[in-house]
């Protein structure tokens, strides 16, 4: 019995240490996004800026909570504290239920989220042609995005930039002679960036789903080991 208990104890410690590391990773990534100058430009430049900040702040809170739970699990396993193990189990179960609920809501409202993304992109098209100072950051970020993904404009190509097309040097300049079109006497990329942005969001969504799935596996293992250890400590 003691050997089984020791095996469960150190397995519990190992999985909680991994869980604690996941919390550190999430927290560090969220803080980096929050304070990074490049991220600040993107977060401040869109109409969803405040919502983006809320999402980043939620990630910071989630990372901190996972770190605390990982610490409780590690200490509860090493010290064989039933109180710590029970707190860990309850907290971890709540996080797992929230992840499941978020996944279900994401699947149910996928079409709605696609509609919101399309509407947001169409609304942000106006920022490319405006001369307001508040839109400058978004225009600069968009110019960099176009250069990296070899596209031009959000919806209607170079025409989305309106009179601002001449304000940025080398804007949408196409170096690939097989894919250019002509606009205002310049060779520019003919593809708009809306498809590149969608692909970018899908790729990042796949990464998020993968991370969430990996966390869920660790969480389930943590729940099993914590309850087994909790029961074994009570039987001593």
Automatic annotation (TrEMBL):
Q: Where in the cell is it found?
A: Cell membrane; Membrane
Q: How does it sit in the membrane?
A: Multi-pass membrane protein
UniProt keyword Zinc-finger, yes or no: no
* Disulfide bonds, paired cysteine numbers: 152-172
Which Pfam families would you find in this protein's record? Answer: Tetraspanin
Matching InterPro entries, A to Z? Tetraspanin/Peripherin, Tetraspanin_animals, Tetraspanin_CS, Tetraspanin_EC2_sf
Q: Which UniProt keywords apply?
A: Cell membrane, Disulfide bond, Glycoprotein, Membrane, Transmembrane, Transmembrane helix
Q: Which residues cross the membrane?
A: 12-33, 53-78, 85-109, 205-230
Query: Record's Gene Ontology CC terms?
Result: plasma membrane
Q: What is its main location?
A: membrane
Q: Which family does it belong to?
A: Belongs to the tetraspanin (TM4SF) family.
What interactions and quaternary structure are annotated? Forms homooligomers. Interacts with MEP1B. Interacts with integrin alpha3/ITGA3. Interacts with RICTOR and MTOR. Interacts with ADAM17. Interacts with ECE1.
Query: What's the protein here called?
Result: Tetraspanin
Protein source organism: Piliocolobus tephrosceles (Ugandan red Colobus)
């Amino acid at each position: 019995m003691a050997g089984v208990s020791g095996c469960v104890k150190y397995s519990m410690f190992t999985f909680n240490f991994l869980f604690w590391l996941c919390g550190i990773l999430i927290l560090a990534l969220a803080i980096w996004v929050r304070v990074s100058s490049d991220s600040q430009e993107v977060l401040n430049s869109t109409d969803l800026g405040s919502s983006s900040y809320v999402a980043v702040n939620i990630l910071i809170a989630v990372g901190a909570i996972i770190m605390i739970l990982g610490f409780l699990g590690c200490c509860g396993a090493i010290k064989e504290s039933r109180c710590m193990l029970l707190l860990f189990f309850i907290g971890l179960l709540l996080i797992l239920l929230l992840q499941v609920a978020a996944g279900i809501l994401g699947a149910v409202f996928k079409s709605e989220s696609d509609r919101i993304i399309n509407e947001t992109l169409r609304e942000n098209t106006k920022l490319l042609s405006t001369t307001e100072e508040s839109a400058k950051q978004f225009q600069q970020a968009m110019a960099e995005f176009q250069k990296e993904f070899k596209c031009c404009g959000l919806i209607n190509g170079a025409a989305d930039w309106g009179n601002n097309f001449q304000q940025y040097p080398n804007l949408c300049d196409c170096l690939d002679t097989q894919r250019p079109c002509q606009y205002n006497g310049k060779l520019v990329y003919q593809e708009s960036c809306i498809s590149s942005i969608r692909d970018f969001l899908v790729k990042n969504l796949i990464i998020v789903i993968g991370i969430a799935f990996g966390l869920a596996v660790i969480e389930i293992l943590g729940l099993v080991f914590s309850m087994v250890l909790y029961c074994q400590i009570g039987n001593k």
